[in-house]
Amino acid sequence: MNFTVIPAIDLRGGRVVRLKQGDYAQQTTYDFDPRAQAGSYAQAGAEWLHLVDLDGARGGSLENLAVIEAIARDGMRIQAGGGVRSEADVQRLFDAGVSRVVVGSLAIREPERVVGWFSTHGAGRITLALDTLQQDGAWRLPSAGWTETESRTLDELAPWYAAQGAQHLLCTDIHRDGMLAGFNLDLYRHLAATVPSLAVQASGGVRSLDDIRAAREAGAKGVILGRALLEGRFTVQEALAC
Known about the structure:
Elements: E1 4-12, E2 15-20, E3 23-30, H1 34-43, E4 48-53, H2 54-59, H3 65-73, E5 77-81, H4 87-95, E6 100-103, H5 105-109, H6 111-121, E7 126-129, E8 133-135, E9 138-140, H7 154-163, E10 168-172, H8 185-194, E11 199-203, H9 209-217, E12 222-225, H10 227-230, H11 236-241
Parallel strand pairs: 1-4, 1-12, 4-5, 5-6, 6-7, 7-10, 10-11, 11-12
Antiparallel strand pairs: 1-2, 2-3, 8-9
């Protein structure tokens, strides 16, 4: 399987933003038009774009759908989520032109329901977002934009989903998200060993091209690149060359 470099745009109120460690009170707003920024990534050679509706992730509705649809019309393959709470939401995103729908909170709270969508839409069109942080010796899975704590752990759910035929897993170490501290390579080595059938996307903390290479060596099949690209630490072309 090819290694995929996926630029990310987080949306809040229709604008490009980044949060630190998922904290809505620690927001950086960038003076970029989301559609133009997506176009620049496409021009640079990126085939996929990761879009997150942060308003939806916290509030439970697809509040930035119009922006997502506008970007999809320009032709990039989009992986998008944030606020997916029902199959109707999944269908709305597909209807908007999204290629893969990211399911986070619901994937943690109602896994049987999400697996049902594999047969309806195809497992390859659903990306599970099991974003995690380590507490008390376990990889915990906060939900609702990382504002609520759930009882299930990463080591319970990831193998279960793999056994159900899941294909794509996005996993962010929340403590590293937006911190430019590098990927948690131990996390991705662990996932490569325990759920080798899943194409794991590494996310959270990338700061350099060496981090991208290290994630690939750790077993990740793709990387999500947010703040590092927005702040010009390297270019999409340089990332693709890794």
